[in-house]
Every structure is written in structure tokens, then in C-alpha cells.
Amino acid sequence: MSVESLILDAKKAILEEQHRRLQTLREEGRWEDVLQQLPATLSCAADVLQHSLGMLQTMAGQQPLTDRSDRSAPPA
Questions:
Q1: Three-state secondary structure call for residue 35
Q2: I need a labelling partner for 20 at 20 to 30 A (CA). Which of 35, 40, 52, 61 fits?
Q3: Is the pTM of this model over 0.90?
Q4: What are the distances in angstroms from CA 23 to CA 9, 29, 37, 43, 53?
Q5: Can you tell me the distance from the alpha carbon of 44 to that of 57, in angstroms, rounded to the nearest whole number?
């Protein structure tokens, strides 16, 4: 489980950096850049949440949910 924790920590650090960039752009009034940065920040946040959920499900002994954003394969 320690590898999973390290991965989660790395993802959280990336999210924090994305959020910092977004806040800086907002404070500078660079709204077009904010709108371009926002999807990346939200994607990072979603990734952290998905990874956290998978870890919780693993700890609870449940089968982790598949990534619902991957529409390439139909559910089994």
C-alpha cells in the first residue's frame, strides 16, 4: 500500500501546483488563461479523487471501480 500512497502524494502535489497556477492567473486577471488552465486543474482533481476512492475500496476489501472516463471498452 505504500506505493499507492506515494502515487497519491505525487498526484496531490501536481494538483496543488495546478491550483497555484490557476490562482496566480486569476489574481493577475488573465481570464482567458484561467479558462485554459481550468480543465487541467479539474482533471488533476478528478484523478486524485479517483485514486483515493480506489485506495479506500481496496482497504475495504471491495473491487475497485473501473475508470468511467475510459469509454473504449464496454462494461463486462
A1: helix
A2: 52
A3: no
A4: 21, 10, 10, 16, 26
A5: 20
DSSP tag of 37: H
Contact indicator for 18, 38 with CB cutoff of 8 Å = no
pLDDT, one tens digit per residue, over 10-49 is: 999 999 999 999 999 999 999 999 999 999 999 999 999 9
Q: Contact, 26 vs 55, CB < 8 A? A: no
Question: Alpha-carbon torsion 43, 45, 50, 51, what sign?
Answer: positive
Which residues, other chains included, contact 70 with Cβ-Cβ below 8 Å and sequence gap of 6+?
none
